[in-house]
Design brief:
4 copies of one chain form a homotetramer.
Chain A (H helix, E strand, L loop, with lengths): L16 H25 L2 H8 L3 H7 L3 H28 L3 H17 L2 H10 L13 H14 L9 H22 L9 H16 L8
The structure holds a DNA duplex.
Chain lengths: 215, 215, 215, 215
DNA sequence: CATGAATGAGTATTCATTCAT
DNA sequence: GATGAATGAATACTCATTCAT
C-alpha cells in the first residue's frame, strides 16, 4: 500500500482492439471475483489471474483496485439503465397507469439482471474514496423520471416535480431492490405481479393526488 | 480455593462497573472511529487507542472487529427503535392520517439522531460474515407496522397485510434514509415538512386504496 | 510478555494443605490441557480456568508457564521411575535373562501409563529455556542400570560399564518409546510379548558379548 | 494478450533463477535462525530479514512458518539419507559384520553433519500441524534396512524382518542421536570408534540370534 | 507493451504476566 | 492470600502496488 490516494481514472484509453479486450476481461473478471469471493477477498492479483492477465498489465489499464470496481459499477448501471430507458420509451405513449406499470416492471427486471453482483455491489462495497459518489442505478433515473412526469403534467396535480420524482424513484428502487436482495419470497414467479401491482398502485395513487378526493 | 463464588459483593460490583465502563468506551470509540476514519481504516488498534484501553482489553470483551461493529449497529438500532416505538404508541389513538404523519416524522427524526454514523453503517459497512444479517432499523419495524395495520384493518381495504407492511416500511425507510444521506437540500429546516407531507400522502393513498375511487 | 527470563523454581513451597491442593490442581490441569490442546495452545489462562483457580493464584505458585510444564514433566518422570524402580527391585534376585525381561516389560508399562501426555511432552514440548535439560525418563535410569550391571559384573564381560549402560538404556527407551508413539501395531496385545522378547534378546546378547563365541 | 507463454526463454530463466535463489536463501536463513534463536523465537519476519528478502516474498514461496521448517527438515533429511544411502551401497558386498560397521559409522557421520540444526529440529520443533508427520531420518531408513536384511537372509535366523528392521534402525538412530545430542564425551575423537564398535556388536549379536548358542 | 518477482506497511489477534482491589 | 481486569509486545500473514527485466 504505497500509494496514498489511488487514481481512479483509467490510465489510458484503450486504443487498440487488443487493449480493449484486456480491459473487458479485467472488468468481467472483477465482477466474477466480486461475486465469488466478496469485496474484501477480491484482490487485484486474483482479478488479474482470473482475467488471464499479468498483474502488471492490470495496472497498465486500471490505476487501482477501486478503479476496477468503479468500472464494474458503471457497467452494471449501464445495463440497468438500458432496460429502464427502453421502458421509458415504451411508456411514453401509454396512459399513465399503464406506463407506470411498465416502468415498475422494468425496475424489477433490471434488478434481476445480475442479482448476485447487485447484492455485492450494494452490500459489501464500501462507498468510500473513489466509490463515494457512485450510486447504484438512480443518478440518471431521477432526471428521466422527471421528464416523464413533465410530459404527464396535465394529468397530475403536482407542484414540485423534483420532489415527486425523488419520492417515486426512491420508492420504486427501494421496493424492487429490497425485494430482490432480501425477500426472495416476494419475487417468486407467482407473486412478482403482486409486487408490481402494489408498487404501481402506490405510485399512481401518489401522483394522482387521490387523497384530494377525500375530505 | 476453587474460587467458585467467593467474591464479596462490593468487589464484584466494582469489577463489573469497571468492565462495563470499558465495554461502553469501546463501543463509543468504535462509533467515533467509524465516522472519522471509515470502516476500512477503523482498525482494532485504533479503536482501542481511542477508547483509552489496551488492545488486549478490547479482545477481552470483543472477540473480533466485527463484533465491535455489531455492537455499534445494535446500539444504533436500539436508539432508532426507541424513537420509532414511541411514535407507534403516540399514533395508536390517532386517526390513520394523523398517525401516519407521526410515524413518518419519527422515521425522519430517527435517521437524524446520528446521520454520520448511520451513513457509515449503511454505506461503508460490508454485510458479510457476522454482519451478514444485521439489518439497519427495519427488522422489527415490519412487525410493528403490521400490528399497526391490523388495528386499522377496518379503515383499510387490504388483503395481504405482510405485503402492505413491506411496501410501507420499505418506502418510508428509503425516503427518509435517502433524504438524510444524499439530499440534505430536502431536509433543510423549511422543507422537512414537505417531505413529511409527501411521504404521508404516499402511504396514506396506498393504504386507503384510493385508486379504487377512479374507474 | 514482560518478563525476559521467566523463573522456573516454585515461588513458595506449599505449606498448607489448601495450597498443596491448588498446586496439584494446577499441575493436573496443565497435563490435561497439554494433552487436549497441545503445547502451543496451552495458555496459562486456560490452565488456571481448568484448575478452577484464578490466573493470579496460578502465578502465586508458578512463576511461569514453563515452570508448570516442568512440574508436569517431573511428575510424569516420577511415575515412570516408580514403575522402573520396582522392576529393578524385582529383577535383583533373578538371573540376568529373566531380570532383563522384567526391566524391558517395565519400560513398556511405563510408557503406557499416559501415552498421550508422554507424546505431547516428547513431541511438542520445545526443550528450550528452563526445559532445556529436562529429560524424559532416562536421567536416573542410566545410574540405576549401571548399578544393576555392577551386580552382575561377573556374569558379563564388560569393560566400560558406563558405555554399556548408555547402550542398553538408550536402546530400551528408544524401542519402547518409538513403539508406543509411532507403532501402535507393534504394541497390539498379541504382539507386545514379541517386542518384549526381541528387546530382551537384543540386550542380553549384547551384555553377554555372545559375539565372542563366534570366531 | 492473454499471456499464456509469451516469455522469451532468457527472461523466463532469469526469473526462475532469481526466484530459486530467493527460495534457497529462505531455507538457509530458516536453518540459521532456527539454530541461533530456537524454534519459538524464529519468526517469519526474522527469517525474511536474515534471508535479505521481504516478508512478502517469503510468503510468495512459503505459505506458512511451518512450511519453511518442513523445507529445512526435508533438506536436512536429504543430506542425512545421502550419507546413509551411500553406506548401504558400500555395505552391499561386504560381509555382514563389516557392513554393519559401515552403516553405524554412516549414522554417526550423518548426525554430525549439522548437529546444532539436528538438535533444534529434534528437540524444539513441535510435531504438530504440518510437522506432525515429518520424521527425522528414519522413514526411509526402515525400508532400506529391511532390504539389506533380505539380502543377508540366509546368514540370519530371523522370522519377522519388519520387526528386526524396527529394532535395528531404532536402536542405531537412538544411540547415535543421543550420543551426538547429549553425550559429547562419548563422541570424543578417541572414543567414537568405541561407540561404533559397541553399536555394531549390539546389532550383530541380535541379528545372528547368538543367544541361541546358549541354552 | 507485458511480465511477475519483490515490496513492506498494515492488520487482526494471542497470551504470559502484573497489580490494584 | 486471592482475584481478574488490564496490559502491550509480539506474531503470522495479506495485498495493493512498483519496477527491473
Amino acid at each position: 500500500m504505497l500509494a496514498r490516494k489511488p487514481q481512479t481514472t483509467p490510465r489510458k484509453i484503450a486504443s487498440q482492439a487488443r487493449a480493449h479486450a484486456t480491459v473487458d476481461a479485467l472488468v468481467e473478471a472483477t465482477a466474477r471475483i466480486l461475486v465469488r469471493d466478496g469485496f474484501d477477498r477480491a484482490s487485484t492479483n486474483r482479478i488479474a489471474e482470473a482475467a488471464g492477465v499479468s498483474i502488471g498489465s492490470l495496472y497498465q489499464y486500471f490505476p487501482s483496485k477501486e478503479s476496477l470496481v468503479v468500472a464494474v459499477i458503471e457497467r452494471h448501471n449501464r445495463d440497468l439503465m438500458t432496460i429502464v430507458n427502453a421502458a421509458f420509451v415504451d411508456a411514453k405513449d401509454k396512459p399513465l397507469k399503464e406506463g407506470l406499470a411498465l416502468l415498475v416492471a422494468a425496475a424489477i427486471d433490471g434488478h434481476r439482471v445480475d442479482p448476485a453482483l447487485h447484492r455485492v455491489l450494494a452490500e459489501q462495497t464500501p462507498r468510500s474514496g473513489a466509490l463515494a459518489n457512485v450510486e447504484l442505478f438512480q443518478r440518471d433515473a431521477y432526471g428521466i423520471f422527471r421528464s416523464y412526469l413533465e410530459e404527464h403534467r396535465d394529468e397530475l396535480h403536482i407542484e414540485d416535480l423534483d420532489l415527486a420524482a425523488f419520492v417515486c424513484v426512491t420508492s420504486i428502487e427501494a421496493l424492487t431492490h429490497t425485494a430482490v436482495i432480501h425477500r426472495p419470497d416476494i419475487l417468486a414467479e407467482e407473486r412478482v405481479d403482486q409486487l408490481s401491482e402494489e408498487t404501481s398502485r402506490l405510485i399512481f395513487g401518489y401522483l394522482c393526488r387521490l387523497d384530494r378526493l377525500i375530505r
